[in-house]
Design goal:
This protein is α+β, with helices and mostly antiparallel strands. It has a single domain, classed as Cytochrome p450 (Orthogonal Bundle). Helix content is 55%, strand content 10%. The chain has 17 helices and eleven strands. The protein has a four-stranded mixed β-sheet. A three-stranded antiparallel β-sheet has the order 3-11-8. The chain has a two-stranded antiparallel sheet with strand order 5-6. A hairpin with a 2-residue loop joins β5 and β6. It starts with 7 loop residues before the first helix and ends with a strand. The N terminus is likely disordered. One 2-acetamido-2-deoxy-beta-D-glucopyranose binds next to α14 and α16.
Length: 454
């Protein structure tokens, strides 16, 4: 994914000098010190703020993040002019590292960055390959539980799928120590404390204004780091190289770098995996046609066998369903980067060191690019142009964002198991609203009922 937020704190405090917004249409600061931060908070989220900003000022628009002018790009055409397809460091991972204050891998020059990226991807590939049966088992446990429910029982998707994602990510990343529920529960507590601030507090600057929130966050981060370090220490002494962290340990990374990469993968992996699964099951439960078409593909390709890694590429419609899930849910609505050299979009000059936001959530619901953008319609990905626009935005499920590729694999295992055994039905009258932070998630838990396929 083409995300890089250079630590918002750094943006706010390291570059205090005020510049003029260079004539790009947009908002004036409502307040001298905070710029438009209050307006962002009033809109509920940065995504909602940007949707409104672009609605008012068009696809290239400016606003003020603290004392700093920001330029936001809100349509495919303007993003195309700005994205450098050759960059290898623009990733969710880099963004998270800077939000966490981790420096490693960012100063080391292009070759080292590329090496780290390959190693990280390779570690994900290895763990998926070596633990595929485990993944299948975790999914089958959950689906077995759903099968045992009476047909009118309401199943809470967020609770169950976050649970699945936590178990899968911790066991695949960190090994069998996380077969113990007590370890997963402890991990989950710290994960929630960290993510709730990373996801939100940083984006509107509000965490820095509350010392109790900041303290809570920092304690959770320290505890999580300690756990990850002790996992790495334990895994060094054994010969079983099945976990993500084992691949990192076999390289020449320092202990600190191993811990940081494990942190990024487990943090982002859990949230992206859980929410991809939640939204996919939710959309399927509201669309019987799509569910039947997917069921047909699964029967054709897999028969009654469980899904396997090498069959996944043949599940083309399943991939369209997941792509459309990412699009409709606006799974990752914001990306950003710092303008390195002066640039130009349309007739607008973007000065060096401007923070440039890619309003992906706005782009994903732009009717000029997607016909009937609010409709969940996996068939739109039969069109070459839709696939092109989508991969331009960096959701390529392949190289650009390794956590998303991991999530696609888990979600494919989930869908191929659940859709062949059960019909997913929506709960009538339920309205599901999204909360758009770094990763979009339902505001409240969302419910389905299931019926056995005869
Ligand atoms: C990207 O790389 C290709 C091939 O190396 C080169 O032709 C192209 O100019 C590069 N594009 C940018 C924007 O740097
Ligand atoms: C990981 O797997 C994907 C898909 O199978 C492949 O495209 C990619 O090159 C692999 N990455 C590494 C570093 O081996
Ligand atoms: C290695 O780890 C896997 C997954 O945790 C486990 O199934 C397997 O039994 C372990 N093998 C050995 C030799 O400990
Ligand atoms: C790891 O080893 C490779 C070559 O073996 C070297 O190029 C690289 O700089 C090393 N990285 C670190 C972080 O020491
Ligand atoms: C899903 O999206 C990716 C781009 O992000 C694209 O490469 C792939 O072809 C798409 N798959 C399908 C089946 O549409």
């Amino acid at each position: 994914m083409t995300f890089v937020i250079i630590l918002v704190g750094a943006v706010l405090y390291l570059y205090p000098s005020s510049r003029s917004a260079s004539g790009i249409p947009g908002l004036n600061p409502t307040e001298e010190k905070d710029g438009n931060l209050q307006d962002i908070a009033n809109q509920g989220s940065l995504h909602e703020f940007l949707a409104r900003l672009h609605g008012q000022f068009g696809p290239v628009a400016s606003f003020w993040f603290g004392r700093r002018p920001v330029v936001s790009l809100g349509s495919v055409e303007q993003l195309r002019q700005h994205i450098n397809p050759n960059r290898t460091t623009d990733s969710f991972e880099t963004m998270l590292k800077s939000l966490l204050g981790y420096q490693s891998g960012m100063g080391g020059g292009a070759t080292e960055a590329l090496m780290r990226k390959r190693l990280y991807e390779n570690a994900i590939n290895n763990t998926l390959e070596k633990n595929f049966p485990l993944l299948l088992k975790l999914v089958e446990e959950l689906v077995g539980k759903w099968q045992s429910f009476p047909e009118d029982q309401h199943t809470p998707l967020c609770a169950h799928l976050l649970g699945l994602a936590m178990k899968a990510v911790t066991q695949l990343a960190l090994g069998d120590r996380f077969q113990k529920d007590s370890e997963v529960i402890r991990f989950r507590k710290n994960h929630e404390a960290i993510w709730s601030e990373i996801g939100k507090g940083y984006l509107d600057g509000s965490m820095d204004k509350s010392s109790s929130r900041k303290g809570h966050y920092e304690r959770a981060l320290t505890e999580m780091e300690t756990v990850l370090m002790s996992v790495a220490e334990q895994r060094k002494g054994q010969r079983n190289h099945t976990a993500f962290v084992d691949t990192l340990l076999q390289s020449n990374l320092s202990d600190r770098q191993v811990m940081e990469d494990s942190m990024v993968f487990t943090l982002a992996g859990c949230v992206i995996t859980a929410n991809l699964c939640i939204w996919a099951v939710h959309f399927l439960s509201s669309s019987e046609d799509v569910q039947e078409k997917l069921h047909q593909e699964l029967e054709d390709v897999l028969g009654s066998d469980p899904v396997s890694l090498d069959k996944i590429p043949q599940l083309r419609y399943c991939q369209q369903v997941l792509n459309e899930t990412v699009r409709t849910a606006k799974l990752t609505p914001i990306a950003a980067r710092l303008q390195e050299n002066e640039g130009k979009v349309d007739r607008h000059i973007i000065p060096k060191e401007t923070l440039v936001i890619y309003a992906l959530g706005v782009v994903l619901e732009d009717a000029d690019t997607w016909s009937r953008p609010y409709k969940f319609d996996p068939d739109r990905f039969m069109e070459d142009s839709a696939r092109k626009s989508f991969s331009l935005l960096g959701f390529s499920g392949n190289q650009a964002c390794p956590e998303l590729r991991f999530a696609y694999t888990v979600a494919t295992v989930l869908l191929s198991t659940v859709v062949r055994k059960l019909k997913l039905c929506k709960v009538k009258g339920q309205v599901v609203e999204a909360r758009s932070e770094l990763v979009s998630t339902p505001k409240d838990d969302t419910w389905i009922t299931v019926a056995r396929r005869s």
